[in-house]
Structures are given as C-alpha cells and as structure tokens.
Design a protein that fits this description.
- It is a single chain.
- The protein has about 400 residues and is mostly beta strands.
- The protein has a 16-stranded mixed beta sheet that branches. A three-stranded antiparallel beta sheet has the order 4-3-22, with no helix packed on it. Strands 17-18-19 form a three-stranded mixed beta sheet.
- It starts with a strand and ends with a strand.
C-alpha cells in the first residue's frame, strides 16, 4: 500500500496498520530510513511503535511513516528484527507499443493498413494451452510494474523469477519517489524455496544483505512465491483477440495480439500491485510460432477509498495493546475481520472516530508486463551456502 498526496488508501488490511504501528513485540526496531513501503516484501524494520504516534484529526505529533502495501504474507524471524515476505510475481513495465520497445523489439508488421484479423475461440484456447504446457516444469519470468494513484507515481518495481519444479527464486526490487517529506528510496531482496526449505536474502540488524534460512518446521503454509503463469488466465475467447501482425523481439519473430473486450476477464490480484477487482483496460500478447506466449502487457485500474491522514489514530502503550482509531464502522469491521485471520497479531483495541469520515475516491492505475524466457529449459536453483538459521513466525 502506498500513500497518496491527500491521505491514506483504505484496503481494510490489518497488516497495513500493524506495519505502521511496528510494536516492539513484533519488531525490535532500529534507527535509520523510513519503513519499507511494501512490508510484505521487505527486509528490516526501522523503529518501534513507541517511537511515534499518529495523531487523529490533525493533532500534533510526529508523522507516521508511509503505510505498507497489502501483503500476501509477513514473516518475523526471531532475534533479527527481520520483516520478510512473500514476493509477488515477476514484472517489467515496458510500455510496449505496436512499433516495438526499448530497442529490444523491432516492428515487422506486414504492409499497409489491412484490417486486424479476429482470432477464433479455438485459436485463443490453443495459445493458452500451449503456453501452460511449455512452461509447466521450468522457465524464467521478468515482471515490471508501475503504479500511479490520482495521476501521481506511487511505486515502480521488478521481479525476476526462476522456477524449476517446486524450487523457486524471486529477486525483486522496488523504487519509491520522494513524497510527504521523505526522500526517494529503493529496496531489494530475494525469496527462495529449495526442497521445501525457505531462504531469504535480506538486511538484518547489521543492515547488510545476508542469507537466512527459516527453521520453522511448519514451513509457513501461507507463504508462496506468486506464479507468473497465472497471467494465462486472461487468454480467454471472450477477450476477442485480434492479430495485428508480426514483431521481432529479442531476435524472435512473434505474433502480436491485442484484446478488444475486457468485460469478462478474471481478476489478476496475485500480480504485483494489482488490486482485487481491478479492471483490465488494455491487453497485448506476443506469441511464437508454437503459440507460446513470450510477453504479455496490460494496464488495469481500480477505485480506492482515500481517507485524510488524520482520520487514523494509532497509539501503543508500553506492555499494553495497540489502540487504533479508524474513520468509520465499515473500516472497523474490515479490520476486525482481518484480525481474526491474522497469526501472531498483537492485542488491539479498535475505536471509531467521534465524527465518522467519508472517504473520497481515487483511481489507481497499474501498468505491467510479464516477459518469459528460458521456456521449458532446466533452471539451476540451489540452497545458499552459509545461510544463517532463524526461526520464522507469521
């Protein structure tokens, strides 16, 4: 979750509030830069909840750090203050147009102004089937994304995913622009699964990147590296794909397809920064002569509820519960529901503001591109040597 110029997006996620509060019981804290924008993908904590208070209705007090993004899973490694988490899928925001992109693709559309040809339902199903089969066992995917809200840049990021059977590696990075008096920042980490064992390459108390091995015998069932192959779910006949011609990208001659109907496409909230219920507005696909997808590019938008920053009040008393004041009953109900499902969450008292706040609506737009390579080729993913053993909770 990111913070817009005018306030906080309400996604009803308890972990976003917990990430903002950072009680000492969850995170020993350490001095340094602002907390990570995406707590689910992050390395080390910055400070405890006792270090600051978010005051309600414009009251005095230190300003809280940016709230964290919605997280698929957060893990705390005991004794390190490490907040690490499930990486999202791989992405590359390439803004590919029909004329190629960034020097890696050249236009090869055959002559003139002939009208696009509509693909049959059988042809679309063949592309989806061939792609799933070709990438069933192994491959690589790069996913890049760019997120704006109300026209203001929130975050850009890239995931580079390698998979081979049940072994996975996700190296991801994010960049955040300067905002709300905080400087621009970047972050990087790696999540890796080898033989059902979970490894993290993150910054610990030493503030340097190191490998950690999670020794929790439960194996964190809530943790997964999102599968980039889920994008094939948008390859539906109802999207009414049309064939635009050919393009040469990375030395491969690819068929360029474009969707023209988005009314029945399924959600893709497992991809980075795509919200549940996001509506796809553009979709382009590039496939090879075997009907295997090499690249897929889309944009999607979602309407967010935005509350004034002062409408949230989070306090933490020493050895006591978190006291959270929220804008209205709806947010309180969402937070309580999330708390019931949260594992290891601290005690929390939820209060509703004396004067309930009505949110304003802002449109969040996400552009992303998924590029596949090493399709079906064996990938080497090994356990990192000398990883530091730590027991993960969360």
């Amino acid at each position: 979750m990111t913070r817009s110029a005018g306030g906080l997006r309400d996604r009803g996620d308890v972990m976003e509030l917990l990430a903002r509060a950072r009680p000492a019981s969850l995170d020993p804290g350490q001095a340094g830069p602002r907390p990570a924008e995406a707590a689910a993908r992050l390395a080390a904590a910055d400070r405890t909840a006792a270090d600051y208070e978010v005051t309600g209705h414009g009251g005095a007090g230190p300003v809280a750090p940016r709230p964290a993004r919605r997280m698929p899973r957060a893990a705390v490694l005991t004794g390190t203050g490490l907040a690490a988490a499930a990486a999202a899928v791989a992405v590359t925001v390439l803004a590919v147009s029909a004329g190629g992109q960034g020097g890696t693709g050249s236009a090869a559309h055959g002559g003139g102004t002939r009208a696009p040809v509509l693909l049959t339902a059988a042809m679309v199903r063949q592309v989806a089937s061939a792609s799933r089969s070709a990438l069933a066992l192994s491959g690589r995917a790069t996913i890049s994304y760019r997120n704006t809200q109300a026209g203001k840049l929130q975050v850009t990021g890239t995931d580079r995913i390698t998979f081979s059977g049940k072994n996975w590696n996700d190296a991801f990075s994010q960049s955040f622009p300067a905002s709300d008096g905080q400087p621009a920042s970047t972050q990087f980490a790696i999540n890796r699964i080898v033989g059902k064992q979970f490894y993290l390459y993150i910054k610990g108390r030493t503030n340097k990147l190191e490998w950690y091995r999670d020794t929790n015998p439960n194996g964190h069932p809530s943790f997964t590296i999102p599968d980039p192959r889920t994008v094939f779910s948008v390859l539906e006949p109802s999207a009414r794909f049309e064939f635009l011609g050919y393009q040469v990208i990375d030395g491969i001659r690819l068929k360029h397809l474009r969707a023209t109907n988005f009314s029945h496409l399924r959600g893709l909230s497992t991809l980075p920064d795509l919200q549940p219920g996001a509506h796809v507005t553009t979709l382009q696909v590039w496939v090879d002569g075997h009907n295997v997808v090499h690249r897929l590019s889309l944009t999607a938008d979602a309407t967010q509820n935005v509350y004034p920053a002062g409408s949230y009040n989070i306090r933490h008393r020493a050895h006591g519960p978190l006291i959270v004041t929220v804008p209205n009953k709806a947010v309180a109900a969402q937070l309580k529901a999330k708390l019931k499902k949260a594992h290891g969450a601290p005690r929390m008292i939820i209060r509703i503001a004396r004067h309930p706040v009505v949110p304003r609506h802002e449109v969040q737009v996400t552009a992303l591109t998924v590029t596949f390579s090493g399709i079906g080729q064996p990938q080497r993913i090994t356990a990192p040597a000398h990883a530091i053993a730590q027991y993960g909770r969360g």
